[in-house]
Amino acid sequence: MTVADTAPANAAQTDAPACADDAGDWARPLLERQLWILGQLAEGGLEIARAIERAATDEGSDDAVRAAAPMAYARVARAVRLTILLQSKLIADLQALEAKAAREVRSEKIDQKVDRPDLLRRQMARIHRIVRRVAWAQGKAIEEVERLARDAVDRLDQDELYGDLLSRPVSEIIAHICRDLRLEPDWPQLAEEAWAQDEIASGAAGAPLAALMAEEADARRLTAVTKPIRFAARAASP
Fold first, then answer.
1. Least confident among 114-118, 142-146, 183-187
2. How far apart (Å, rounded) are the C-alpha atoms in residues 83 and 139?
3. Burial class (CB in 10 A: 0-12, 13-18, 19+), 91
4. How many CB atoms lie within 10 A of CB 90?
5. Cα–Cα dist 148/127, whole Å
6. Which among 27, 1, 2, 3 is positioned nearest to 15, based on CA atoms?
7. Measured between alpha carbons, how far is 143 from 50 in angstroms, rounded to an integer?
């Protein structure tokens, strides 16, 4: 059994997608298919070499077949050796691809560990500013505004309350904090802010913004249905 025979069965039937975004998405199945093809060629060549060997040693073979057998055997044997060499090269390419993918995963994890503290600080600062604006919009005194903003930051340090600040939509965190601080966000107003627009554009808007978008969509449909029909003026009766 050759190395290629151990490849997944579907690898032999897999063609590389022409529009793959990541080279690793199509390179591995393509290499596996090439290994399968080389395995078939090697097995076929080996069978031919054995057939030539049998013909050369068969007493029933004529002299012409026996005379041509050594040259034919040498050519087939060379083709099989070249096929095995190509297999070895493809295996090395496949191993290099896997090693590269592993390095990229490790590098991404390292980058996340390095960037996460800074991203977390920026996220907390953003939420602090939003809560401050919400409190100010409700007419709170400046001292109360600052106290509420500080309380919000203190609460953000408690992971069991709000979970991972970098994985949850900002709007959901704001809604949760404001509920705890007894604040009532003006979501139509907040939805106009840049962070909210970015969240909506991402296609992963949190529940408060998603609900607001649904309400606006319903209002537009209702307006379209109830819009008065304008009839053309008719000429006066003679």
1. 114-118
2. 80
3. middle
4. 19
5. 12
6. 27
7. 94
